[in-house]
């Protein structure tokens, strides 16, 4: 089944060209199917690029996926036009009374700030609190994962001496977990961040499971026992050139970044990067959607009565 998005969204034509099965909102209403409802809180500055990356992965499921895009009101985007945001995005106030099967909270380039210093932190906290009663499963990405772990469980983040940037090998810790179904014992995910969390801090919370780890990148995929909260510290959604674009951007800024690890062939920034993580990313998002589809109550408004955290 297809992913349902507005036909005017820039991602629509891009995904159609890649043979990702998408349909317009107008056509979808004629199908007698209860779609899985997903809201994406997009905190990334490159919003159109991030929309396309996430919708590509959500569109590879046999389920019909109905997507809403959310923006924060307490931050003015400098990289996305007001027209695009007005046309395709809704605010928390507009979505506050609705219920969703799943939610994605993206990363944001604010890792070096204390959480409370981020200008939209209070609004984000309100959204994360709302998600406990109005969303069955929330998937937090990169900084969004660190923010979620901090808000819900008090897990602190730690700043690295240098930026963690590259494509890192991971080990599946829990091979029988529903989110890790079909994964090889070792798999790759890109990371791009200045901060991370310590596994020792995660172990303090019996309601959390570490699903995948990396020798270099650390704890990479974490979930609450019933998958109502999922945290992925990497960027499985990244395109072929995303890390390259970030690397060359940082070079222009005079930051002297390290060449992204295990990314360019022969470590040569002039070479075309090879995608080595797309199948893993697709599998992970498909597993997440399938789990949400199976576990969300038939009456979606009953979400608030389901415990978020289970310790046993």
Description of the structure:
- It is a single chain.
- The protein is α/β, with parallel strands linked by helices and 312 residues long.
- It has a single domain (3-298), classed as Class I glutamine amidotransferase (GATase) domain (Rossmann fold), CATH 3.40.50.880.
- Helices cover 30% and strands 25% of the residues.
- It has helices at 10-17, 25-28, 47-58, 82-88, 92-95, 121-134, 143-153, 199-203, 242-252, 278-295; strands at 3-5, 22-24, 36-41, 65-71, 89-91, 100-105, 135-141, 158-172, 186-196, 208-214, 218-224, 229-232.
- Strands 1, 2, 3, 4, 5, 6, 7, 8, 9, 10, 11 and 12 form a 12-stranded mixed sheet that branches.
- Strand 6 (100-105), helix 6 (121-134) and strand 7 form a beta-alpha-beta unit.
- Helix 1 crosses helix 3.
- It is globular and about 55 Å long.
- The model is unreliable at 27-32 (pLDDT under 50).
- Give the beta-strand count: 12
Please tell me the overall pLDDT: 90
Order of helices and strands: EHEHEHEHEHEHEHEEHEEEHH
Residue stretches low in confidence (pLDDT < 50, at least 5 long) are 27-32
Helices, by number, come to 10
Tally of discrete structural domains: 1
What is Rg?
A: 19 Å
CATH class term: Alpha Beta
Let me know the CATH homologous superfamily. Answer: Class I glutamine amidotransferase (GATase) domain
| Proportion in helices | 25-40%
Strand content: 25-35%
Task: Quote the distance from N terminus to C terminus.
Answer: 35 Å
The appropriate CATH architecture is 3-Layer(aba) Sandwich
Give the overall form: globular
The multimeric state of the shown protein is single chain
């Amino acid at each position: 089944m297809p992913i349902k998005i507005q036909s005017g969204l820039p991602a629509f034509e891009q995904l159609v060209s890649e043979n990702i099965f998408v349909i317009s909102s107008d056509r979808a209403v004629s199908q007698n199917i209860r779609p899985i409802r997903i809201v994406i809180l997009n905190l990334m500055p490159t919003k159109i690029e991030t929309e396309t990356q996430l919708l590509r992965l959500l569109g590879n499921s046999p389920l019909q996926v109905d997507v809403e895009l959310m923006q924060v009101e307490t931050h003015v985007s400098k990289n996305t036009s007001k027209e695009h945001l007005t046309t395709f995005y809704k605010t928390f106030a507009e979505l506050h009374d609705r219920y969703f099967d799943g939610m994605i909270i993206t990363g944001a380039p604010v890792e070096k700030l204390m959480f409370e210093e981020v200008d939209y932190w209070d609004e984000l906290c309100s959204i994360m609190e709302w998600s406990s009663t109005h969303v069955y499963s929330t998937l937090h990405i990169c900084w969004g994962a660190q923010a979620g772990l901090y808000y819900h469980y008090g897990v602190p983040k730690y700043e690295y001496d240098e930026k963690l940037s590259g494509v890192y090998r991971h080990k599946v810790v829990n091979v029988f977990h529903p989110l890790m179904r079909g994964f090889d014992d070792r798999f790759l995910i890109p990371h791009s961040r200045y901060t991370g969390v310590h596994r020792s801090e995660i172990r303090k919370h019996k309601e959390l499971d570490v699903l995948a780890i990396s020798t270099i990148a650390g704890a990479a995929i974490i979930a609450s026992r019933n998958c109502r909260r999922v945290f992925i510290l990497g960027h499985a959604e990244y395109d072929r050139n995303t890390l390259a674009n970030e690397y060359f951007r940082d070079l222009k800024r005079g930051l002297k970044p390290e060449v992204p690890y295990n990314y360019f062939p022969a470590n040569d920034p002039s070479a075309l990067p090879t995608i080595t993580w797309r199948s893993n990313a697709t599998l992970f998002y498909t597993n997440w959607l399938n789990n949400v589809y199976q576990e969300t109550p038939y009456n979606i408004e009953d979400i608030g009565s389901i415990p978020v955290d289970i310790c046993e």
